[in-house]
């Protein structure tokens, strides 16, 4: 319990920023018209390339016997890749709606 309390006291500034970012993100997203949700989300999913790079760095810097870091890094690479591919698929399908149909 003491380690948890010391973690919060040491990282108080970062925890506050994360909490405020969550509230700000909710406010920003709630004010976006529903017509713009698909392009916004597909673009946001493409940003997950940063997650993939970070996960690769974590896996590269992890000790060989640190299984938790290796497993979490591997899961982050897999899930980040799925999110990036999904974002591009959604964008492609959305752009197909605006193409003229061939006769």
Salient structural properties:
0% strand; 2 domains; single chain
Cα-based radius of gyration, to the nearest Å: 19 Å
| Total count of helical runs of at least 4 residues | 5
Q: What structural class results from the helix and strand content?
A: mainly alpha
Strand content: under 5%
**Total number of strands:** 0
Mean pLDDT: 83
Distance between the termini: 70 Å
Largest sheet: none
User: How would you describe the shape?
Assistant: flat
Task: Give the helix level as a range of percent.
Answer: over 70%
Number of domains: 2
What can you see in these coordinates?
- This protein is an all-alpha fold and 103 residues long.
- The protein is flat, with a radius of gyration of 19 Å.
- Helix 3 packs antiparallel against helix 5.
- The chain has 2 domains: 31 residues; 70 residues.
- Helix content is 79%, strand content 0%.
Brief summary of the model shown:
This protein has 103 residues and is mostly helical. It is 79% helix and 0% strand.
Map the helices and strands.
Layout: H1 2-10, H2 12-30, H3 37-46, H4 49-61, H5 67-96
């Amino acid at each position: 319990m003491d380690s948890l309390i010391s973690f919060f006291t040491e990282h108080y500034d970062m925890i506050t920023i994360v909490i405020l970012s969550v509230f700000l993100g909710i406010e920003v997203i709630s004010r976006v018209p529903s017509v713009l949700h698909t392009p916004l989300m597909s673009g946001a999913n493409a940003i997950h390339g940063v997650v993939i790079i970070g996960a690769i760095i974590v896996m590269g810097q992890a000790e060989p016997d640190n299984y938790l870091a290796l497993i979490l890094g591997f899961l982050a690479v897999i899930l980040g890749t799925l999110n990036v591919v999904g974002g591009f698929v959604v964008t492609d399908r959305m752009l197909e709606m605006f193409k003229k149909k061939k006769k």
